[in-house]
């Protein structure tokens, strides 16, 4: 498969149109064509400065902000900037489930270094397993990452909003880099109506009939709160601050937040399930679903071309051959009770029976019984 000689965008990625070795974005000479122009605007930086200042002027509440801490380089560095450089009292919040040991090591090291309170919440394993299995066997045309991550992300973001609302924390911060998630969903901040008025329950789960009402209530829904409840803002500071992937990887090691550059690499700190999602998309779409994101960062000068020129083929080889870190593909398939052929993109014309394929969870036509609803968040630290 051909790649853009400048930004490494694969030829099979939507909109690549590689001609004379260059993709359409590089031929146009405009990194903003992929969304770069909607980040790092003066008004975003000014608003973020004002939001932080307003927290510092508050006299009530134990915490000024909640910071989503996944153990990746960006979330660790974000927690440092907010607590050390800006002096905010932060509650670090981690949603467990599929984090690798490298991520947990980064989390423990960062929390100890910064001496912050840390809350860990892990969703019930049975619910999470059935949710991911259903999504992987009923993928939308854009593939596994788009199907699964865009259900998992609202789930974890919703947990953060629940904790912040319960604690009276005015700001939730996430370490999304520019382009994460896709601009159609979040640029700098979730719109106010999205947090204060919108039910985040994914239709793909609600319409499946496989999940009970108590399970679906795990997703954020402001309508469950009394009228007049004050909801936090949800902001991605790296959409406003200057951002360089290379500089962040360097900084977290120098600051002692992460042990070494290997642990700072997203290749090693990535969610274990992501290896299976990438495997599915390599099979079904023909390219790594994260390649467009890194190509955009390369075009914008925020990621190293030489680093990803070396790492992309290595990562794809590990995934395709299920070797080294790619062994997570086999482990996840085994855990979910799936075969490679069960990882299917479902066309709009397929019936639910056809969409089920050979997936063992649907083979006998009887969905698993829903798990009991979990207790409210705010449990053990």
Describe the structure.
The protein has a domain at 40-270: Rossmann fold (3-Layer(aba) Sandwich). The N and C termini lie far apart (47 Å). It has helices at 24-28, 42-56, 73-85, 101-114, 125-136, 144-167, 192-196, 203-206, 213-216, 245-254, 261-264, 266-269, 272-284, 291-299, 305-321, 327-336, 352-356, 360-363, and strands at 65-68, 90-95, 117-121, 171-173, 233-235. The longest helix has 24 residues, at 144-167. Helix 3 runs parallel beside helix 4 (101-114). It is globular and about 60 Å long. The protein contains 18 helices and five strands. Strands 3-2-1-4-5 form a five-stranded parallel β-sheet, sandwiched between helices. With 381 residues, it is mainly α.
What layout of secondary structure does this protein have?
Layout lengths: L23 H5 L13 H15 L8 E4 L4 H13 L4 E6 L5 H14 L2 E5 L3 H12 L7 H24 L3 E3 L18 H5 L6 H4 L6 H4 L16 E3 L9 H10 L6 H4 L1 H4 L2 H13 L6 H9 L5 H17 L5 H10 L15 H5 L3 H4 L18
Parallel strand pairs: 1-2, 1-4, 2-3, 4-5
Helix pairs in contact: 3-4, 3-10, 13-16
């Amino acid at each position: 498969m051909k790649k853009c000689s400048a930004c490494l965008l694969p030829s099979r990625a939507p909109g690549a149109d590689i001609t004379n070795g260059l993709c359409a974005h590089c031929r146009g000479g405009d990194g903003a064509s992929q969304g770069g122009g909607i980040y790092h605007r003066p008004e975003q930086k000014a608003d973020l400065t004002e939001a932080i200042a307003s927290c510092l002027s508050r006299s009530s509440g134990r915490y000024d902000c909640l910071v989503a801490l996944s153990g990746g380089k960006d979330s660790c560095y974000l927690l440092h900037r907010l607590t050390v450089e800006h002096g905010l009292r932060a509650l670090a919040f981690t949603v467990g489930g599929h984090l690798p040991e490298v991520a947990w090591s980064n989390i423990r090291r960062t929390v100890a270094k910064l001496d912050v309170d840390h809350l860990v919440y892990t969703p019930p394993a049975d619910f999470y397993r059935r949710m991911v299995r259903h999504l992987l066997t009923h993928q939308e045309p854009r593939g596994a990452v788009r199907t699964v991550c865009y259900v998992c992300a609202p789930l974890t973001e919703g947990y953060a909003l629940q904790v912040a609302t319960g604690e009276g924390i005015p700001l939730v911060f996430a370490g999304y880099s520019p382009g994460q998630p896709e601009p159609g969903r979040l640029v700098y901040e979730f719109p106010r109506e999205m947090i204060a008025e919108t039910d985040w329950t994914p239709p793909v789960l609600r319409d499946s009939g496989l999940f009970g009402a108590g399970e679906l209530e795990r997703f954020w829904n402001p309508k469950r709160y009394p009228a007049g409840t004050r909801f936090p803002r949800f902001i991605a500071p790296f959409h406003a601050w200057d951002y360089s992937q290379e500089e962040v990887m360097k900084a977290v090691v120098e600051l002692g937040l992460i042990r070494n550059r290997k642990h700072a690499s997203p290749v090693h700190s990535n969610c274990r399930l992501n290896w299976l999602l990438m495997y599915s998309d390599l099979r079904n779409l023909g390219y790594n679903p994260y390649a467009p994101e890194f190509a955009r960062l390369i075009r914008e000068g925020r990621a190293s071309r030489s680093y990803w020129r070396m790492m992309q083929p290595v990562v794809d080889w590990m995934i395709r051959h299920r070797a080294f870190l790619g062994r997570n593909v086999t482990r996840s398939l085994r855990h979910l009770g799936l075969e490679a052929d069960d990882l299917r993109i479902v066309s709009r014309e397929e019936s639910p029976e056809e969409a089920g394929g050979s997936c063992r969870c649907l083979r006998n036509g009887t969905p698993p019984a829903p798990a009991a609803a979990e207790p409210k968040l705010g449990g053990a630290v």
